[in-house]
Amino acid sequence: ADVTRGALRGRPAAMEAREPLRDVRGALRAVLARLREGEPGEGREPFELPRFWDALGQTFQVTSQEATKLSLAFSRPPLPSAEDCQKLSEDVQNAVLAVATVYYWLPKGQGTTLRKMVRDATTEVVEGMIQLTDTILNAPVESLSQEQLISTGGVWEACEQVSNLPRGEYNQAAVVSALAACLGVVKDAVEEMEHALVEGQDPYGDIMEDEELGFRGNRDTYWSEADRQLLSSCMGLMKASKACLKKVLAAVKAHGKADSPEQIAQLDDLADIANEISPSVDELALSMYPPVNPLAVRLNQTQEASLMNFLNFCRTSHVCPPSEEGWVQFLSGAVDHNMNKVKNFTQGQL
C-alpha cells in the first residue's frame, strides 16, 4: 500500500516536471501557424546564398540534436526534474525558432519555388518537434514508448532533408528539382497505363476475385476494341506530357538563369504550370479504366490547355533560345493531333 501511495504521489510530480513541455508545444504551434500563413521579408542586409545554406544546415542539425536530448531525457527513470525539463524545453524552442528565423532570411526575390521548398522543409521540422512533444506528454512516465521512438526518428528525418534541398544557382536549381518531380509522376502514370494496355491484359488482374460475387466475368473490367482506339490517342497525350516536361527540364538545365527578377519569375511560372500537368495526367488515366465513358475521357482533357500553356510560355521565356524552338513546335503539333483524334472519337457523346 505504501508503494502504491508513493507511485500515486509520484505521478503528479512527473506531470508537473513535464509542464514546461506544454508551454513549448504551444510556442511551436504558433511558429508553425506563422510559417504556413506568413511570408519571409526582403531582409535588412545583402543576401548571401552560401551563408544562408550554411546557417540553415546548422540550425537543422542543432534541432536534431535537441530532439535527441529531449527524447533521451524521457526515455527511462529517473525522469528530469522540473528545472531540467525547463532547460530542455527552452533549448528545443530556441532551436526551432532559429530554423524559422533563417528561413525568413530568404527574400521573396530569390524565387517562389525555392522559398516553397525551404518553407516545406522548415515546416516539416517544426511539425516533427510538435509531434515529439505531444508523444512525450501523452506517454506513460514509466517507459519509452514505440511512438516516442517513431517521433524522434521523424524529427531526424525531417532535419536531414536540408541536405536534399537544391543549392544551385538560386531559383534555377529549385525549379529543376520541381520539374523533375513532376516528370517522375507523369512517367509513372504512363508506364502504369502502358502496362495495363498490353494486348489482352485485364487492368484489374491484380484484384482478388470476390468470394460472394464470384469470378470477375463482367465485361466492364475489360476494354473493347473501340475503347482501345480511343485510349491510343489518350496515351498519345500522356506521352506528349512526358515529352514536354522532359524537354523543358533539359532547357531549364541548359539555359535557365536567375540573374534578374524577370528570369526568376519566368522560372517560377514554368514550375507552377508544370504542377498543373501531373494531376491532369492522373485524372485522364483514371477516366481511361473500364468501363470507359468517352464523355468523361473528353472532359478530362484538361491537360491540353496546361500543355499548350506550358509550351507557349516556354517559347517566350529565356530558357528557349532559337535552337530550342523546333521541339516546341513539334510537341505543340503532337498535342493538337492527339486531342483532335480524341474529339473525333467522342463527338457522338456531346
UniProtKB/TrEMBL annotation:
GO terms under cellular component: cytoplasm; nucleus
Subcellular location: Cytoplasm; Nucleus
Domain of life (superkingdom): Eukaryota
Gene3D superfamilies given in the database record: I/LWEQ domain, Talin, central domain
Domain Cyclin-D1-binding protein 1-like C-terminal: 209-300
Residues covered by the Cyclin-D1-binding protein 1-like N-terminal domain: 56-197
UniProt keyword terms in alphabetical order: Cell cycle, Cytoplasm, Nucleus
Main location: cytoplasm
Family the entry assigns: Belongs to the CCNDBP1 family.
UniProt protein name: CCDB1 protein
Source organism of this protein record: Copsychus sechellarum
